[in-house]
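Dissemination and training. As part of the outreach component of the grant, students in the summer workshop were shown how a complex can be specified as a set of sequence lines and then modelled as a single object. The example used during the hands-on session is reproduced here so that future cohorts can follow it. Participants entered these lines:
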Amino acid sequence: MLVSKQLLSKFLPKIYGVDNKDIVNACSAIGIEVEQIITHPITDNLVIGQILEVTNHPNADKLHVCKVQINNKDINTIVCGANNVVAGKKVIVALQNCKLHDDRVIEYKELRSVLSQGMICAYNELTPHAVFQSDEDKDGIILLDDALVGDKDVGKYIGLNDTLFELTLPSNRNDLNGVLFLCQELSGYFKWDFQIPSAEEINPTFNEAFNIEYDVHSCNGFAVVKIKDIKHNHSNWLTKGLLMNNGVKPINDVIDRLAYITLLTNIPTAIYDASKITNDFVIAKANSNDSFIGFDNNKYNLSINDIVVKSNNTIVSLAGIIGGADFGVNDHTKDVVIELANFNNANIRSTSLKLNLNTDAARRFGKPISNYAIELAISFIYKQFTGYQVSAPITKLPKAPLVKVTLDLPYVQQLLGTTLSLDSIKENLKAYGFIFDGDTCFVPLYRQDIVTSQDISEEILKFLNINELLEAPIQYDLGKLNNNYEYYLTSQIKSILNGNFINEVKTYNLVSEQRLNTFNLYKYTTPIKIDNSHNLERAYFRTNLINEMLKIYEYNASYKTSLQPIFEIQKIYGNENELSLTVLSSDTINLDHISKSKLNVNVNYLKAIANQIADLFGIKFEYLHTTETGIFYRNEELAIRYSGRLIGYIGLIKQTMLQPYSLHDKNIYCLSLNLSMLLNLYHPTRIKFNAINKLQPVFKDVSFFINDGEKIENLLNALKLLPFIDSYKFIDRYVNADEQVSYTIEFKFVADKTINTKTIDDYLNQIYQKMVESNCIVRK
Amino acid sequence: MKVIDTKELLTNFEQTLKDSLNETQIIEAKNAFANKYLSPIYSELKLASIGEKKAIGNFANIFKNEINELTDRYLKRIKLEKENSQHKLNYDINIDNVKLTKGGLTPLTLITNEVIEFFKYLNFEIVTGDEVVSTKYNFDHLNIGSNHPARSTQDSFFINQLTMLRTHCTSVTAQMLDGNKSKDIRLVTYGNVYRNDEDDATHSHQFNQVDLVWVRDGLSIRNLKWIVSSLIKHLFGEEIQSRFRLSYFPFTEPSFEVDMTCTNCHGKGCSICKFTGWIEVLGAGMLHQNVLKAANIDIKTAIAAGLGLDRLAMLKYGITDIRDLYSNDFRVLDQFKREG
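and obtained this result:
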């Protein structure tokens, strides 16, 4: 919202004496944010002149030569191209050396052999803040009637001496878009005397009958006023300047007067040519096959949620948004009918959004307004149109019940942390338009945001000033300590991954349909579809993280950045929702190209990382060779299981799957883990201490060939049955000339007692036995 | 006893040792020297009379020790040389080439952790919750009536009429409050939230929030001020001031927007704070009675606040384009490895 100091000063004259900074503070105290303070530039070497004579330029069709009186002795010859130049009018002249806001410097110069001594100015040549200038004024110079020739202080004639405040209002205070209501709040803050003028003062000059019908789902109030014999003038520049400073584009005298009323009351008006409509109005929802041609000459197809105003059974306007092309005012209009209404704001919002018609009226009607404000607007019609013939209003404006709040003083005191007395509250809230009877508070008629004592407490803060209230630390018991396992464990997992050189990434959860189905690792069949996304790229909640993570690799590879291992932890929504972890890494992490130190990543490396996560929960994962995903190479694909349930995969992504990401020359390994299941397993006592053995450990190495096609897990499962094996590790792998693979395992034996050579031989024999049974050839 | 000049002999011997290339040559040289000069003395000793034996014996021992010392010295030297020549460097220890930084966290996680750290002190329950929520908790329980502009389907991602992606973490707060019978509820919710919006430098359809409530009889706006300004100080430093402005949110009354001293210009005024010296950092308020009623809670006072984590991260680290938080450009992420 744009509001100017001059407009405020019409009701709050004292505001002129207030520093802009204090106005900002006042706004902030009453919940309004000042986004920007705008002042027009001050330009030197401008003067009011009077055009004495206009002749056509001898050498140019479109130029005029003007004689302009610029003080009581000098007359300058000025060449001017504007089409509205006319003798007798006062104008604003830029004299020699005048530097305009766009850095142009005016000099005397010959224009087609006529010396021009200055320039007659248009509005946008004097200020950069001219967005609300009418198109007509853009092409023409400023013409003034009442101005003093020779006056160098020209700003005051066109409103350039004003200060503009760009405000953001609290979203529940639509009423504050009306300057009168804004003034009420400001006067409350500054403790100035101000009262909103009475809505009952009306001075009709004739009566005219209208019939009004509406349904309560479309409309909460409707009123019309007729004005006869309108004049087709332009407003003077003082009015135009004021309107532009308050965000209104001037059009003509009648419409500008109505726009001014809208500025004061936040009630938009619609205006009809009385000769084009009949005196009956019906406000209702449109039919599904209705269409309508707006004042902008566009055709709009309507639906049953759009509200329309009909007269003589014809749609004359799209309620609260735009008038009809055939019913508006033109240069021949004699009498007009003015409509003031209170339409259903939700319908106005949806229609405006649907038809992309974001008019000023639609913005104001898009939120609740009060019938009281309409009555106020009607009373201002009589003030603004003095000298006109204005009919008595025909209104159907049900009065809203007076809102009474019984002030719960102890509660308000508690909420605010103060001991403020009822008398003090009453005294201060009066200035904001509240009236008290005992502890009953009557809310101003235009306020629809106040229902309870809690709402009143906000009003109290306006004069208490929140920033003056002292902070009070909260005394609290520790109570039952929160474990916060999900947050704690997720952080721990991130820490484990970081420790393994893996970097966290953060990607978007919404994906296109196509992206959804590639890498659907867990074969989810009921993904979550977004019903109303504006963007096809955000059609589904993803079912895996791999896609978006590969896009990271694609992106970084395109910048020739070497690919680092990455991980992401996010919620995904498949058949059920889960917290998913995915790790991606290329097969080599180069640490130093000179000394050739590097990490080789493969399935077993990722398995080791998964094991670190399992350790956090005090559990062991099972890994099973699988070929079920179709995403990984069949021989480098493991399913991760815990207590019989699939909880993840490790694998090398197929080159063909990487093709769309331009990563086909890379080997990229992937670990995917469902963390939701693990989080439930955590218990603080997951680590069991085993007393350590003081006896010397016994190690023995055994080498063996494994027959081609034989699975090593058979041997490993068999070895699990031998109780005397404390632990083992693979220490060598060797392939002989016949391509037979040999492994060496170092066994550590349980040493709960001193074991002799005979026992050791016995242990070894049992191991050999298992090896033979598992189709291995022991190399003794 | 034959008088021999051991000094001159040893000088010559040392020269031989100096010229030796390895341990074998030294040993050989020693043996040869001892055979030639020391052995004859011992032979002489055997034949010597008892009277001479002592003097010859002493002389032989001194000479022998001198030979051994000299040999040992040169053996050591050659060993050292050998050790140094055998251990050849294949790189230059003066070049820092190995990159061995642990993995990093995203700026969003770093800022989330910092905020949550604060609430851990106060023993809050920390929840991330569901991102797919019911309109009941996203709107109805939060005093956002069916006619409220915030419910526009234009602004939120809907799955159907009753289910949607959460537009604020407050929806999870509402869910957690529903039917909560505790007399002292401390809850902080964090995570992704969504708006049906196009992405640009300051808007993202997916972003992050932290939402907190403390429900307990007797809490006041002054308590709210304390918790909010303490949090801002925790995040940005003790010297940072906060300023409260009245505002409007459906689920709190009164509601505030909270500004902090501009971290860029320290309040002097700059383009980042639009020359006001203040930067908006969070929203807060006293939880609306209707929210407590909807949750079936009979406690009358509760403080609440919500922070946009993306904006917070941008302010804290000086990031100007929100899309940098989601681009996962390694050149961006690498800068945050030192943190956390």
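Chain B has a mean pLDDT of 90. Students were then asked to discuss how this feature might be tested experimentally.
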